[in-house]
Amino acid sequence: MKKYIHEVADWHEMTYDNNVLHDPLIEFYKVQGKLFGKLDALGFDVQNDLILYAVSEEVITSSEIEGETLNRSSVRSSVAKRLGLEVAGIIETPSNHYTEGVVEMAIDVTTHYLRPVTDERLFGWHCAIFPTGHSGIRSITVGAYRLNEMSIVSGAIGNEKTHYIAPEAERVPGEMKIFLKWLENKQEIDPYVKAGIAHLWFESIHPFDDGNGRIGRAIVDLLLARAEDSSKRFYSLSSQFLKERNDYYNELEYAQNYPGDIGRWLVWFIGCLTRAVNASELKLNKAKQKAVIYEKLRNITMNKRQITILNKMIEGFEGKLTTAKWAKINKCSHDTALRDIDDLITKSVLQRSTEGGRSTSYELYDEITK
Hints:
Layout: H1 22-40, H2 44-65, H3 72-83, H4 97-111, H5 119-129, E1 134-135, E2 138-139, E3 151-154, E4 161-165, H6 172-184, H7 191-205, H8 212-228, H9 237-243, H10 245-256, H11 263-296, H12 304-316, H13 323-330, H14 334-346, E5 350-352, E6 362-364
Antiparallel strand pairs: 1-2, 3-4, 5-6
Helix pairs in contact: 1-11, 2-3, 2-4, 2-9, 2-11, 3-4, 4-5, 4-8, 6-7, 7-8, 7-11, 9-10, 9-11, 13-14
């Protein structure tokens, strides 16, 4: 009969071979140093744009992993407001209680990364992401550890597959006490390895009725901030988790089914962290381009619809921009879209594309992209 990780004596030791982490850590520190080196040479505008992107993406993608789709503009607006960031092209957008709650948790994690993680702090995060006391239509225990048994199950009713069974509910307070003591104590281990251990450990306890993934990833983000001794986040690990969601779940399941040590999980985790930093470097180039473009357009007045499309074009618009796409994205009429476009052509922000096609398409004016 197989054993889950928490059923093994002294499972809190989380054993692994340091040798298998040597090369992955060297590669991670190399790409991290390259990113931070580039950031040091840039102005605050570009740095703020990247911070806004990273924190917003952390909120959006951590929720998306759990099947929650958030409005990107609402999240970016909320994050910018709470962090006091002045970033070109930000549109103030209303948000709902859930969005405000997950943003509040993310901001608490990044700005107060040195504050101890306690039961009470975790309960506060849990209340923030479940402000109604419900997960969907289901009533859950909020602001307290779970009182029921917890299994990770997939598949249709009658054909379920059990991936993991968490510790019994009565064990949770004691397990969390051990975990939080370890979390706040200093160990002679690499801080990024500690983040990987912490995520696996927390997810293996699965202490809440719901929200364990989001809170577990928030703990990782807090430990990354501690590792870098900075509240400025320039990359999003949850974004990379989402891109590699199947591997993410498979590697967690493999480790939780007790393979003997957690080396394989940590190798994957550090690799994923490296890929997240590489992805941020690509975004950095977009942020630099955006700063240059908005500096050239600083005296041009644009409405919210125009700013929305301009941001999308700078950050990577899929396909060709047409009047129909403009109307669909902005939820406006074809006539309104055409007026917006003609206005930007007059102001030398857009130009008609020279590429052929059945309908007229538009692109950024040549001079502002140089």
